[in-house]
Amino acid sequence: MKTTIYIGISLILLFSIWVSDILLERKEVSTHLSLQVSTYADELDELTIDEVKNKLFQPSLPQFSFPKAHKALWIRIILKNLPTDKGNYSIHLNRAYLSRRIQVFDLLSEIDTKTSDYNFLDPDIESSLTGSSIVIPLNLRPGETRTLYLKRYPLTVNFVDISLHDEYSSIQHLINKSLLSNSLISFILALAIYNLILFSYLKRNEFLYYFFYLLNIVIGLSFLYGSLLHHAIIFGEFNSLLSLSSTLVNVFLILFIKSLFDTKKENLLINKWLNSAIVLSLLFFTTGLFISVEFIMNSIQYLYGYTYLILIYFSITFYRKEHPLINIFILALTAYLIGTGILLLSLIGIIPLSTLTLHSSGIGFIIEAYLFSYLLSNRITLLEKIISQQKNKLSLMNKKSKIGDMIATITHQLKQPLNVISSSVSILQHKLAIQQPISNQYLSKELHQVEDKIQYISETINDFTTFYKPDSAPVICNISQLINNCLKILHEEILSQNIIITLDLEPDLVKSLYRNDLFHICLNILQNSKDAIESNAPEHKEIMIKTGQHKDKIIIEFEDTAGGIKEDSLTSIFDEFYSTKNENTTTGLGLYIVKYILEDRLKGSIEVKNTTNGVLFRLAI
Protein backbone atom coordinates (compact mmCIF):
# COMPACT_ATOMS: atom_id res chain seq x y z
CA MET A 1 0.00 0.00 0.00
CA LYS A 2 2.76 2.42 0.98
CA THR A 3 4.67 1.52 -2.18
CA THR A 4 1.63 2.45 -4.28
CA ILE A 5 1.34 5.80 -2.48
CA TYR A 6 5.03 6.60 -3.05
CA ILE A 7 4.86 5.68 -6.73
CA GLY A 8 1.61 7.65 -7.11
CA ILE A 9 3.18 10.76 -5.62
CA SER A 10 6.19 10.33 -7.89
CA LEU A 11 3.99 10.03 -10.98
CA ILE A 12 2.03 13.15 -9.96
CA LEU A 13 5.33 14.99 -9.59
CA LEU A 14 6.45 13.74 -13.00
CA PHE A 15 3.20 14.92 -14.56
CA SER A 16 3.58 18.34 -12.89
CA ILE A 17 7.07 18.67 -14.35
CA TRP A 18 5.76 17.74 -17.79
CA VAL A 19 3.08 20.44 -17.48
CA SER A 20 5.75 22.89 -16.30
CA ASP A 21 7.79 22.00 -19.37
CA ILE A 22 4.88 23.11 -21.56
CA LEU A 23 4.07 26.26 -19.59
CA LEU A 24 7.66 27.42 -19.26
CA GLU A 25 8.72 26.44 -22.78
CA ARG A 26 10.50 29.29 -24.58
CA LYS A 27 8.18 31.37 -26.70
CA GLU A 28 9.60 32.24 -30.10
CA VAL A 29 8.61 35.67 -31.40
CA SER A 30 7.48 33.96 -34.56
CA THR A 31 4.90 36.58 -35.53
CA HIS A 32 7.68 39.15 -35.86
CA LEU A 33 10.93 37.31 -36.53
CA SER A 34 12.21 34.22 -38.27
CA LEU A 35 15.11 32.39 -36.63
CA GLN A 36 17.50 30.09 -38.45
CA VAL A 37 20.25 28.16 -36.65
CA SER A 38 23.03 26.21 -38.35
CA THR A 39 26.40 24.77 -37.26
CA TYR A 40 29.90 24.09 -38.55
CA ALA A 41 32.53 21.98 -36.74
CA ASP A 42 35.99 23.55 -36.59
CA GLU A 43 37.90 20.41 -35.70
CA LEU A 44 41.32 22.03 -35.21
CA ASP A 45 40.19 25.53 -34.19
CA GLU A 46 41.85 27.07 -37.26
CA LEU A 47 39.18 29.33 -38.76
CA THR A 48 38.67 33.05 -38.27
CA ILE A 49 35.32 34.80 -38.54
CA ASP A 50 36.07 35.91 -42.11
CA GLU A 51 37.04 32.38 -43.17
CA VAL A 52 34.08 30.65 -41.58
CA LYS A 53 31.55 32.86 -43.41
CA ASN A 54 32.29 30.94 -46.62
CA LYS A 55 31.87 27.48 -45.08
CA LEU A 56 28.83 25.28 -45.58
CA PHE A 57 26.78 25.24 -42.36
CA GLN A 58 24.40 22.43 -41.44
CA PRO A 59 20.84 23.39 -40.38
CA SER A 60 20.14 22.73 -36.68
CA LEU A 61 17.52 23.17 -33.97
CA PRO A 62 17.92 26.04 -31.47
CA GLN A 63 18.41 23.45 -28.71
CA PHE A 64 20.71 20.46 -29.21
CA SER A 65 23.63 18.51 -27.76
CA PHE A 66 26.14 15.97 -29.08
CA PRO A 67 29.53 14.58 -27.98
CA LYS A 68 32.61 16.72 -28.13
CA ALA A 69 34.56 15.63 -31.22
CA HIS A 70 36.39 18.84 -32.14
CA LYS A 71 38.01 21.85 -30.53
CA ALA A 72 35.44 24.44 -31.57
CA LEU A 73 31.87 24.65 -32.88
CA TRP A 74 30.64 27.58 -34.99
CA ILE A 75 26.95 28.44 -34.72
CA ARG A 76 25.32 30.78 -37.22
CA ILE A 77 22.12 32.59 -36.24
CA ILE A 78 20.14 34.43 -38.92
CA LEU A 79 17.30 36.70 -37.79
CA LYS A 80 14.88 38.29 -40.25
CA ASN A 81 12.37 40.95 -39.17
CA LEU A 82 9.08 41.69 -40.95
CA PRO A 83 9.09 44.77 -43.22
CA THR A 84 6.54 46.63 -41.09
CA ASP A 85 7.86 45.89 -37.57
CA LYS A 86 10.69 47.12 -35.46
CA GLY A 87 11.59 46.52 -31.85
CA ASN A 88 14.03 45.47 -29.18
CA TYR A 89 14.68 41.78 -28.90
CA SER A 90 17.29 39.57 -27.29
CA ILE A 91 18.93 36.22 -27.86
CA HIS A 92 19.49 34.08 -24.75
CA LEU A 93 22.36 31.62 -24.73
CA ASN A 94 21.01 29.43 -21.95
CA ARG A 95 23.37 27.21 -19.91
CA ALA A 96 26.33 28.84 -21.61
CA TYR A 97 28.41 27.86 -18.54
CA LEU A 98 28.58 24.32 -19.98
CA SER A 99 31.20 25.79 -22.33
CA ARG A 100 34.78 26.73 -21.58
CA ARG A 101 34.49 29.83 -23.75
CA ILE A 102 32.05 31.48 -26.16
CA GLN A 103 32.87 34.22 -28.67
CA VAL A 104 30.00 36.22 -30.16
CA PHE A 105 30.36 37.99 -33.52
CA ASP A 106 27.43 40.29 -34.27
CA LEU A 107 27.56 41.37 -37.94
CA LEU A 108 26.07 44.85 -37.68
CA SER A 109 26.97 45.54 -41.34
CA GLU A 110 29.34 44.24 -44.00
CA ILE A 111 32.22 46.16 -42.46
CA ASP A 112 31.15 46.46 -38.82
CA THR A 113 31.31 43.46 -36.48
CA LYS A 114 30.71 43.65 -32.74
CA THR A 115 32.76 41.02 -30.90
CA SER A 116 32.18 39.76 -27.33
CA ASP A 117 34.26 37.15 -25.50
CA TYR A 118 32.99 35.08 -22.55
CA ASN A 119 35.60 32.93 -20.78
CA PHE A 120 33.85 30.75 -18.21
CA LEU A 121 37.12 29.77 -16.56
CA ASP A 122 37.55 33.42 -15.60
CA PRO A 123 36.24 34.02 -12.04
CA ASP A 124 35.32 37.62 -13.01
CA ILE A 125 32.94 36.63 -15.81
CA GLU A 126 29.93 37.31 -13.56
CA SER A 127 29.73 40.94 -14.66
CA SER A 128 29.30 39.89 -18.30
CA LEU A 129 26.35 37.56 -17.65
CA THR A 130 22.70 37.93 -16.80
CA GLY A 131 22.30 35.32 -14.09
CA SER A 132 23.80 32.23 -15.69
CA SER A 133 22.90 33.18 -19.28
CA ILE A 134 24.49 35.24 -22.02
CA VAL A 135 21.90 37.78 -23.18
CA ILE A 136 22.58 39.46 -26.54
CA PRO A 137 20.37 42.55 -27.05
CA LEU A 138 19.13 43.28 -30.59
CA ASN A 139 17.50 46.39 -32.03
CA LEU A 140 16.09 45.40 -35.40
CA ARG A 141 14.73 47.77 -38.02
CA PRO A 142 11.72 46.81 -40.17
CA GLY A 143 12.75 44.21 -42.76
CA GLU A 144 16.29 43.94 -41.32
CA THR A 145 18.19 40.66 -41.48
CA ARG A 146 20.87 40.19 -38.80
CA THR A 147 23.50 37.47 -38.73
CA LEU A 148 25.44 36.39 -35.66
CA TYR A 149 28.23 33.86 -35.36
CA LEU A 150 28.98 32.08 -32.10
CA LYS A 151 32.24 30.23 -31.60
CA ARG A 152 31.80 27.72 -28.78
CA TYR A 153 34.63 25.87 -27.06
CA PRO A 154 32.97 22.85 -25.39
CA LEU A 155 33.76 21.87 -21.82
CA THR A 156 32.32 18.38 -22.08
CA VAL A 157 29.57 18.00 -24.68
CA ASN A 158 28.44 20.40 -27.39
CA PHE A 159 25.44 21.80 -25.56
CA VAL A 160 23.55 24.61 -27.30
CA ASP A 161 20.36 26.19 -26.02
CA ILE A 162 19.27 29.33 -27.92
CA SER A 163 16.03 31.19 -27.35
CA LEU A 164 14.69 34.42 -28.84
CA HIS A 165 12.62 36.91 -26.80
CA ASP A 166 11.02 40.29 -26.88
CA GLU A 167 11.46 42.58 -23.87
CA TYR A 168 8.60 41.09 -21.82
CA SER A 169 9.29 37.41 -22.50
CA SER A 170 13.02 37.97 -21.86
CA ILE A 171 12.32 39.14 -18.32
CA GLN A 172 9.81 36.34 -17.70
CA HIS A 173 12.21 33.72 -19.02
CA LEU A 174 15.03 34.90 -16.76
CA ILE A 175 12.69 34.83 -13.75
CA ASN A 176 11.04 31.47 -14.41
CA LYS A 177 13.74 29.41 -16.05
CA SER A 178 15.24 28.25 -12.72
CA LEU A 179 11.92 27.51 -11.01
CA LEU A 180 11.76 23.88 -12.05
CA SER A 181 15.48 23.27 -11.49
CA ASN A 182 15.52 24.85 -8.05
CA SER A 183 12.40 22.95 -7.00
CA LEU A 184 14.05 19.64 -7.82
CA ILE A 185 17.31 20.60 -6.10
CA SER A 186 15.53 21.91 -2.99
CA PHE A 187 13.49 18.74 -2.64
CA ILE A 188 16.56 16.47 -2.91
CA LEU A 189 18.53 18.68 -0.49
CA ALA A 190 15.69 18.46 2.05
CA LEU A 191 15.77 14.66 1.77
CA ALA A 192 19.55 14.70 2.27
CA ILE A 193 19.23 16.72 5.48
CA TYR A 194 16.43 14.44 6.66
CA ASN A 195 18.67 11.38 6.23
CA LEU A 196 21.50 13.12 8.09
CA ILE A 197 19.13 13.76 11.01
CA LEU A 198 18.06 10.10 10.96
CA PHE A 199 21.71 9.04 11.05
CA SER A 200 22.36 11.25 14.09
CA TYR A 201 19.57 9.43 15.93
CA LEU A 202 19.81 5.85 14.62
CA LYS A 203 23.59 5.64 14.00
CA ARG A 204 22.98 3.50 10.91
CA ASN A 205 25.58 3.90 8.15
CA GLU A 206 22.92 3.52 5.44
CA PHE A 207 21.53 6.95 6.31
CA LEU A 208 24.97 8.59 6.29
CA TYR A 209 25.89 7.11 2.89
CA TYR A 210 22.51 8.11 1.48
CA PHE A 211 23.00 11.65 2.80
CA PHE A 212 26.33 11.98 0.92
CA TYR A 213 24.77 10.34 -2.13
CA LEU A 214 21.97 12.92 -2.23
CA LEU A 215 24.39 15.75 -1.43
CA ASN A 216 26.52 14.86 -4.46
CA ILE A 217 23.38 14.72 -6.57
CA VAL A 218 22.50 18.23 -5.37
CA ILE A 219 25.97 19.49 -6.30
CA GLY A 220 25.87 17.79 -9.71
CA LEU A 221 22.40 19.06 -10.57
CA SER A 222 23.28 22.55 -9.31
CA PHE A 223 26.15 22.58 -11.79
CA LEU A 224 24.04 21.18 -14.63
CA TYR A 225 21.15 23.59 -14.03
CA GLY A 226 23.36 26.62 -13.32
CA SER A 227 22.07 27.18 -9.80
CA LEU A 228 25.56 27.59 -8.36
CA LEU A 229 26.36 30.30 -10.88
CA HIS A 230 23.00 32.03 -10.68
CA HIS A 231 22.50 31.99 -6.91
CA ALA A 232 25.82 31.12 -5.24
CA ILE A 233 27.79 33.17 -7.81
CA ILE A 234 30.50 30.53 -8.24
CA PHE A 235 32.49 30.96 -11.45
CA GLY A 236 35.87 29.97 -12.79
CA GLU A 237 37.69 26.65 -12.68
CA PHE A 238 36.20 25.73 -9.30
CA ASN A 239 32.74 25.66 -10.88
CA SER A 240 33.90 23.17 -13.50
CA LEU A 241 35.44 20.99 -10.79
CA LEU A 242 31.99 20.67 -9.22
CA SER A 243 30.95 18.57 -12.21
CA LEU A 244 33.19 15.83 -10.75
CA SER A 245 30.52 15.20 -8.13
CA SER A 246 28.89 13.01 -10.79
CA THR A 247 31.74 10.51 -10.25
CA LEU A 248 31.19 10.45 -6.47
CA VAL A 249 27.46 9.77 -6.85
CA ASN A 250 28.28 6.16 -7.72
CA VAL A 251 30.66 5.81 -4.76
CA PHE A 252 28.08 6.70 -2.13
CA LEU A 253 25.26 4.85 -3.90
CA ILE A 254 27.30 1.65 -3.81
CA LEU A 255 28.35 2.20 -0.19
CA PHE A 256 24.66 2.65 0.60
CA ILE A 257 23.81 -0.61 -1.17
CA LYS A 258 26.66 -2.52 0.52
CA SER A 259 25.52 -1.36 3.95
CA LEU A 260 21.80 -1.86 3.28
CA PHE A 261 22.13 -5.40 1.93
CA ASP A 262 25.24 -6.41 3.92
CA THR A 263 26.84 -7.71 0.71
CA LYS A 264 30.11 -8.63 2.44
CA LYS A 265 28.18 -11.24 4.40
CA GLU A 266 25.47 -12.13 1.87
CA ASN A 267 27.52 -12.47 -1.34
CA LEU A 268 31.29 -12.01 -1.43
CA LEU A 269 31.50 -12.00 -5.25
CA ILE A 270 28.89 -9.25 -5.56
CA ASN A 271 30.74 -7.32 -2.86
CA LYS A 272 33.97 -7.49 -4.89
CA TRP A 273 32.24 -6.23 -8.05
CA LEU A 274 30.70 -3.35 -6.12
CA ASN A 275 34.12 -2.51 -4.68
CA SER A 276 35.56 -2.43 -8.20
CA ALA A 277 32.97 0.19 -9.21
CA ILE A 278 33.93 2.28 -6.16
CA VAL A 279 37.62 2.07 -7.07
CA LEU A 280 36.93 3.02 -10.70
CA SER A 281 34.77 5.98 -9.63
CA LEU A 282 37.47 7.24 -7.27
CA LEU A 283 40.03 6.85 -10.05
CA PHE A 284 37.85 8.99 -12.34
CA PHE A 285 37.41 11.59 -9.59
CA THR A 286 41.16 11.76 -8.83
CA THR A 287 42.07 12.00 -12.52
CA GLY A 288 39.61 14.84 -13.06
CA LEU A 289 40.77 16.66 -9.93
CA PHE A 290 44.48 16.57 -10.69
CA ILE A 291 44.77 16.01 -14.45
CA SER A 292 41.80 16.86 -16.68
CA VAL A 293 38.14 17.54 -15.94
CA GLU A 294 37.37 17.62 -19.66
CA PHE A 295 38.77 14.12 -20.27
CA ILE A 296 36.83 12.63 -17.36
CA MET A 297 33.53 14.30 -18.24
CA ASN A 298 33.88 13.15 -21.85
CA SER A 299 34.38 9.58 -20.58
CA ILE A 300 31.76 9.62 -17.83
CA GLN A 301 29.34 7.48 -19.85
CA TYR A 302 31.76 4.53 -19.60
CA LEU A 303 31.88 4.81 -15.81
CA TYR A 304 28.10 4.93 -15.59
CA GLY A 305 27.75 2.06 -18.05
CA TYR A 306 30.07 -0.13 -15.96
CA THR A 307 28.22 0.79 -12.77
CA TYR A 308 24.83 0.12 -14.40
CA LEU A 309 25.90 -3.40 -15.42
CA ILE A 310 27.11 -4.22 -11.90
CA LEU A 311 23.91 -2.89 -10.31
CA ILE A 312 21.79 -4.92 -12.73
CA TYR A 313 23.84 -8.05 -11.92
CA PHE A 314 23.43 -7.31 -8.21
CA SER A 315 19.66 -6.89 -8.60
CA ILE A 316 19.24 -10.15 -10.50
CA THR A 317 21.33 -12.07 -7.95
CA PHE A 318 19.45 -10.79 -4.90
CA TYR A 319 16.10 -11.16 -6.67
CA ARG A 320 16.83 -14.85 -7.17
CA LYS A 321 17.68 -15.08 -3.47
CA GLU A 322 14.26 -13.51 -2.73
CA HIS A 323 15.75 -10.85 -0.50
CA PRO A 324 12.89 -9.02 1.28
CA LEU A 325 14.12 -5.55 0.19
CA ILE A 326 15.08 -6.26 -3.41
CA ASN A 327 11.73 -5.54 -5.13
CA ILE A 328 11.57 -1.95 -3.91
CA PHE A 329 15.28 -1.53 -4.68
CA ILE A 330 14.74 -2.67 -8.28
CA LEU A 331 11.95 -0.10 -8.72
CA ALA A 332 14.20 2.64 -7.32
CA LEU A 333 17.13 1.51 -9.46
CA THR A 334 14.89 1.53 -12.54
CA ALA A 335 13.93 5.15 -11.86
CA TYR A 336 17.62 6.00 -11.40
CA LEU A 337 18.70 4.22 -14.59
CA ILE A 338 15.90 5.70 -16.71
CA GLY A 339 16.42 9.24 -15.39
CA THR A 340 20.19 9.36 -15.80
CA GLY A 341 19.98 7.32 -19.01
CA ILE A 342 17.62 9.82 -20.67
CA LEU A 343 19.90 12.70 -19.63
CA LEU A 344 23.02 11.01 -20.99
CA LEU A 345 21.27 10.06 -24.25
CA SER A 346 20.05 13.64 -24.73
CA LEU A 347 23.50 15.09 -23.98
CA ILE A 348 25.14 12.89 -26.61
CA GLY A 349 22.44 13.71 -29.17
CA ILE A 350 20.68 10.35 -29.47
CA ILE A 351 17.35 11.77 -28.29
CA PRO A 352 16.18 15.40 -28.62
CA LEU A 353 17.21 17.84 -25.92
CA SER A 354 14.36 19.56 -24.06
CA THR A 355 13.49 20.90 -20.64
CA LEU A 356 12.01 17.51 -19.76
CA THR A 357 15.01 15.43 -20.91
CA LEU A 358 17.42 17.88 -19.24
CA HIS A 359 15.58 17.44 -15.93
CA SER A 360 15.05 13.70 -16.35
CA SER A 361 17.86 12.79 -13.96
CA GLY A 362 16.39 15.08 -11.29
CA ILE A 363 12.99 13.49 -11.80
CA GLY A 364 14.52 10.01 -11.60
CA PHE A 365 16.39 10.89 -8.41
CA ILE A 366 13.20 12.15 -6.75
CA ILE A 367 11.27 8.98 -7.63
CA GLU A 368 14.26 6.95 -6.45
CA ALA A 369 14.42 8.98 -3.23
CA TYR A 370 10.76 8.21 -2.48
CA LEU A 371 11.36 4.50 -2.99
CA PHE A 372 14.67 4.44 -1.10
CA SER A 373 13.01 6.22 1.82
CA TYR A 374 10.41 3.47 1.88
CA LEU A 375 13.21 0.92 1.52
CA LEU A 376 15.04 2.35 4.54
CA SER A 377 11.80 2.26 6.50
CA ASN A 378 11.42 -1.44 5.62
CA ARG A 379 15.05 -2.00 6.57
CA ILE A 380 14.47 -0.55 10.04
CA THR A 381 11.35 -2.72 10.43
CA LEU A 382 13.36 -5.76 9.36
CA LEU A 383 16.14 -4.92 11.82
CA GLU A 384 13.62 -4.49 14.62
CA LYS A 385 12.21 -7.92 13.77
CA ILE A 386 15.71 -9.45 13.80
CA ILE A 387 16.51 -7.76 17.12
CA SER A 388 13.24 -9.06 18.56
CA GLN A 389 14.12 -12.57 17.40
CA GLN A 390 17.59 -12.24 18.91
CA LYS A 391 16.08 -11.10 22.21
CA ASN A 392 13.75 -14.08 22.19
CA LYS A 393 16.72 -16.31 21.46
CA LEU A 394 18.69 -14.72 24.30
CA SER A 395 15.71 -15.13 26.60
CA LEU A 396 15.55 -18.81 25.72
CA MET A 397 19.29 -19.21 26.22
CA ASN A 398 18.95 -17.37 29.52
CA LYS A 399 16.29 -19.84 30.67
CA LYS A 400 18.42 -22.79 29.58
CA SER A 401 21.44 -21.28 31.32
CA LYS A 402 19.42 -20.79 34.51
CA ILE A 403 18.15 -24.37 34.37
CA GLY A 404 21.70 -25.64 33.87
CA ASP A 405 23.00 -23.52 36.73
CA MET A 406 20.12 -24.63 38.93
CA ILE A 407 20.66 -28.34 38.26
CA ALA A 408 24.42 -28.05 38.85
CA THR A 409 23.93 -26.09 42.08
CA ILE A 410 21.15 -28.33 43.39
CA THR A 411 23.37 -31.33 42.71
CA HIS A 412 26.19 -29.81 44.77
CA GLN A 413 23.87 -28.56 47.52
CA LEU A 414 21.93 -31.79 48.02
CA LYS A 415 24.81 -34.23 47.68
CA GLN A 416 26.14 -33.73 51.25
CA PRO A 417 22.81 -33.88 53.16
CA LEU A 418 21.67 -36.85 51.09
CA ASN A 419 24.96 -38.61 51.91
CA VAL A 420 24.32 -37.96 55.62
CA ILE A 421 20.76 -39.33 55.36
CA SER A 422 21.99 -42.34 53.38
CA SER A 423 24.71 -42.99 55.93
CA SER A 424 22.31 -42.83 58.90
CA VAL A 425 19.80 -45.15 57.21
CA SER A 426 22.56 -47.61 56.24
CA ILE A 427 23.88 -47.78 59.79
CA LEU A 428 20.43 -48.38 61.25
CA GLN A 429 19.69 -51.05 58.63
CA HIS A 430 22.99 -52.78 59.40
CA LYS A 431 22.30 -52.78 63.15
CA LEU A 432 18.82 -54.19 62.58
CA ALA A 433 20.19 -56.84 60.21
CA ILE A 434 22.64 -58.19 62.78
CA GLN A 435 20.07 -57.65 65.56
CA GLN A 436 22.36 -55.30 67.41
CA PRO A 437 20.55 -53.47 70.22
CA ILE A 438 19.79 -49.80 69.43
CA SER A 439 19.35 -47.42 72.35
CA ASN A 440 16.61 -44.85 72.32
CA GLN A 441 19.23 -42.10 72.71
CA TYR A 442 21.19 -43.26 69.64
CA LEU A 443 18.04 -43.71 67.58
CA SER A 444 16.80 -40.25 68.55
CA LYS A 445 20.17 -38.75 67.59
CA GLU A 446 20.19 -40.38 64.13
CA LEU A 447 16.57 -39.49 63.43
CA HIS A 448 17.15 -35.91 64.52
CA GLN A 449 20.13 -35.69 62.16
CA VAL A 450 18.03 -37.05 59.28
CA GLU A 451 15.25 -34.60 60.12
CA ASP A 452 17.73 -31.64 60.08
CA LYS A 453 19.03 -32.66 56.67
CA ILE A 454 15.50 -33.08 55.26
CA GLN A 455 14.66 -29.60 56.59
CA TYR A 456 17.81 -28.24 54.93
CA ILE A 457 16.84 -29.86 51.62
CA SER A 458 13.31 -28.40 51.90
CA GLU A 459 14.69 -24.88 52.54
CA THR A 460 17.14 -25.23 49.65
CA ILE A 461 14.35 -26.21 47.26
CA ASN A 462 12.26 -23.25 48.47
CA ASP A 463 15.20 -20.92 47.84
CA PHE A 464 15.58 -22.20 44.31
CA THR A 465 11.85 -21.92 43.70
CA THR A 466 11.93 -18.30 44.90
CA PHE A 467 15.04 -17.06 43.11
CA TYR A 468 14.82 -18.95 39.82
CA LYS A 469 11.24 -17.87 39.13
CA PRO A 470 11.19 -14.87 36.68
CA ASP A 471 10.11 -11.50 38.08
CA SER A 472 7.03 -10.03 36.42
CA ALA A 473 7.72 -6.57 37.89
CA PRO A 474 10.43 -4.76 39.89
CA VAL A 475 10.34 -5.20 43.67
CA ILE A 476 12.10 -3.48 46.58
CA CYS A 477 15.25 -5.53 47.16
CA ASN A 478 17.72 -5.45 50.06
CA ILE A 479 21.09 -5.95 48.35
CA SER A 480 22.87 -7.39 51.42
CA GLN A 481 20.10 -9.91 52.02
CA LEU A 482 20.19 -10.98 48.36
CA ILE A 483 23.96 -11.61 48.48
CA ASN A 484 23.59 -13.61 51.70
CA ASN A 485 20.96 -15.75 49.96
CA CYS A 486 23.40 -16.42 47.12
CA LEU A 487 26.07 -17.47 49.64
CA LYS A 488 23.56 -19.67 51.42
CA ILE A 489 22.87 -21.62 48.22
CA LEU A 490 26.62 -22.03 47.56
CA HIS A 491 27.47 -22.69 51.22
CA GLU A 492 28.25 -26.41 50.92
CA GLU A 493 30.49 -25.95 47.84
CA ILE A 494 32.36 -23.00 49.38
CA LEU A 495 32.80 -24.87 52.66
CA SER A 496 34.10 -28.00 50.92
CA GLN A 497 36.84 -25.96 49.17
CA ASN A 498 37.86 -24.03 52.30
CA ILE A 499 37.19 -20.67 50.61
CA ILE A 500 37.13 -17.63 52.90
CA ILE A 501 34.25 -15.21 52.31
CA THR A 502 34.93 -11.57 53.30
CA LEU A 503 31.91 -9.27 53.34
CA ASP A 504 31.78 -5.46 53.36
CA LEU A 505 28.06 -4.88 52.88
CA GLU A 506 25.94 -1.82 53.58
CA PRO A 507 22.99 -3.32 55.50
CA ASP A 508 20.31 -0.81 54.48
CA LEU A 509 21.09 -0.63 50.76
CA VAL A 510 17.79 -1.14 48.89
CA LYS A 511 16.56 -0.55 45.33
CA SER A 512 13.52 -1.30 43.22
CA LEU A 513 14.60 -3.80 40.56
CA TYR A 514 14.07 -7.27 39.13
CA ARG A 515 15.35 -9.14 42.19
CA ASN A 516 15.68 -12.62 40.73
CA ASP A 517 17.60 -11.31 37.71
CA LEU A 518 20.15 -9.68 40.03
CA PHE A 519 20.23 -12.86 42.14
CA HIS A 520 21.06 -14.91 39.03
CA ILE A 521 23.83 -12.44 38.05
CA CYS A 522 25.46 -12.47 41.50
CA LEU A 523 25.18 -16.26 41.75
CA ASN A 524 26.79 -16.65 38.31
CA ILE A 525 29.76 -14.43 39.21
CA LEU A 526 30.24 -16.20 42.57
CA GLN A 527 30.17 -19.59 40.85
CA ASN A 528 32.79 -18.37 38.35
CA SER A 529 35.07 -17.23 41.21
CA LYS A 530 34.53 -20.52 43.08
CA ASP A 531 35.26 -22.56 39.92
CA ALA A 532 38.40 -20.48 39.16
CA ILE A 533 39.71 -21.02 42.71
CA GLU A 534 39.00 -24.75 42.44
CA SER A 535 40.74 -24.92 39.03
CA ASN A 536 43.82 -22.79 39.85
CA ALA A 537 44.18 -23.91 43.50
CA PRO A 538 45.83 -20.74 44.85
CA GLU A 539 47.51 -20.88 48.24
CA HIS A 540 45.15 -18.29 49.68
CA LYS A 541 41.49 -18.90 48.76
CA GLU A 542 39.25 -15.91 49.30
CA ILE A 543 36.25 -14.17 47.74
CA MET A 544 35.59 -10.57 48.80
CA ILE A 545 32.20 -8.93 48.30
CA LYS A 546 31.59 -5.22 48.78
CA THR A 547 28.48 -3.07 48.25
CA GLY A 548 28.00 0.69 48.19
CA GLN A 549 26.31 3.56 46.38
CA HIS A 550 27.68 6.15 43.95
CA LYS A 551 25.24 8.93 43.08
CA ASP A 552 22.06 7.08 41.99
CA LYS A 553 23.82 3.78 41.23
CA ILE A 554 24.13 0.68 43.44
CA ILE A 555 27.68 -0.68 43.29
CA ILE A 556 28.45 -4.38 43.90
CA GLU A 557 32.05 -5.65 43.69
CA PHE A 558 33.21 -9.28 43.60
CA GLU A 559 36.95 -9.92 43.94
CA ASP A 560 38.74 -13.26 44.18
CA THR A 561 42.29 -14.59 44.57
CA ALA A 562 42.15 -17.12 41.72
CA GLY A 563 45.01 -15.53 39.75
CA GLY A 564 43.06 -13.36 37.29
CA ILE A 565 42.21 -13.60 33.58
CA LYS A 566 44.63 -13.38 30.66
CA GLU A 567 44.77 -9.82 29.33
CA ASP A 568 43.90 -10.89 25.78
CA SER A 569 40.73 -12.54 27.13
CA LEU A 570 39.48 -9.59 29.19
CA THR A 571 37.86 -7.88 26.19
CA SER A 572 36.15 -11.11 25.06
CA ILE A 573 34.75 -12.69 28.22
CA PHE A 574 31.32 -11.11 27.64
CA ASP A 575 31.09 -12.38 24.03
CA GLU A 576 28.53 -15.02 23.15
CA PHE A 577 29.90 -18.60 23.44
CA TYR A 578 33.28 -17.36 24.67
CA SER A 579 34.70 -19.10 27.72
CA THR A 580 38.04 -19.48 29.48
CA LYS A 581 36.88 -22.84 30.86
CA ASN A 582 37.04 -26.29 29.32
CA GLU A 583 34.76 -26.45 26.26
CA ASN A 584 33.29 -29.75 27.45
CA THR A 585 32.09 -28.26 30.75
CA THR A 586 30.55 -24.97 29.67
CA THR A 587 28.32 -23.40 27.02
CA GLY A 588 30.12 -20.07 27.17
CA LEU A 589 26.83 -18.27 27.81
CA GLY A 590 27.31 -17.35 31.49
CA LEU A 591 28.91 -13.89 31.40
CA TYR A 592 27.26 -13.11 28.05
CA ILE A 593 23.86 -13.68 29.67
CA VAL A 594 24.97 -11.74 32.77
CA LYS A 595 25.84 -8.69 30.65
CA TYR A 596 22.66 -8.99 28.59
CA ILE A 597 20.36 -9.18 31.66
CA LEU A 598 22.24 -6.42 33.45
CA GLU A 599 22.00 -4.00 30.51
CA ASP A 600 18.61 -4.97 29.10
CA ARG A 601 16.57 -5.73 32.23
CA LEU A 602 18.37 -3.87 35.03
CA LYS A 603 19.65 -0.94 32.90
CA GLY A 604 23.05 -1.32 34.51
CA SER A 605 26.63 -2.03 33.48
CA ILE A 606 29.47 -4.41 34.33
CA GLU A 607 33.25 -3.90 34.34
CA VAL A 608 36.04 -6.38 34.84
CA LYS A 609 39.73 -5.92 35.59
CA ASN A 610 42.63 -7.92 36.98
CA THR A 611 43.90 -7.21 40.47
CA THR A 612 47.10 -8.23 42.25
CA ASN A 613 45.90 -11.74 43.09
CA GLY A 614 42.80 -12.26 40.98
CA VAL A 615 39.97 -10.54 39.18
CA LEU A 616 37.42 -7.86 40.13
CA PHE A 617 33.88 -7.64 38.74
CA ARG A 618 32.12 -4.31 39.34
CA LEU A 619 28.37 -4.03 38.83
CA ALA A 620 26.63 -0.64 38.61
CA ILE A 621 22.82 -0.74 38.78
Describe the protein in words.
With 621 residues, the chain is of the alpha+beta class. It contains 21 helices and 17 strands. It has helices spanning 2-23, 49-52, 167-176, 179-202, 205-225, 227-230, 237-241, 245-261, 263-266, 268-290, 293-298, 300-320, 326-347, 355-358, 360-433, 440-467, 479-489, 491-496, 515-536, 567-570, 590-600; strands spanning 33-42, 58-60, 63-67, 72-81, 87-93, 99-107, 113-119, 134-140, 145-154, 157-166, 475-478, 500-504, 510-513, 542-550, 553-560, 605-610, 615-620. Strands 2-1-4-9-6-7 form a 6-stranded antiparallel β-sheet, with no helix packed on it. Strands 12-14-15-17-16 form a 5-stranded mixed β-sheet, with helices on one face. Strands 3-10-5-8 form a 4-stranded antiparallel β-sheet, covered by helices on one side. A hairpin with a 2-residue loop joins strand 14 and strand 15. The radius of gyration is 41 Å and the shape is rod-shaped.
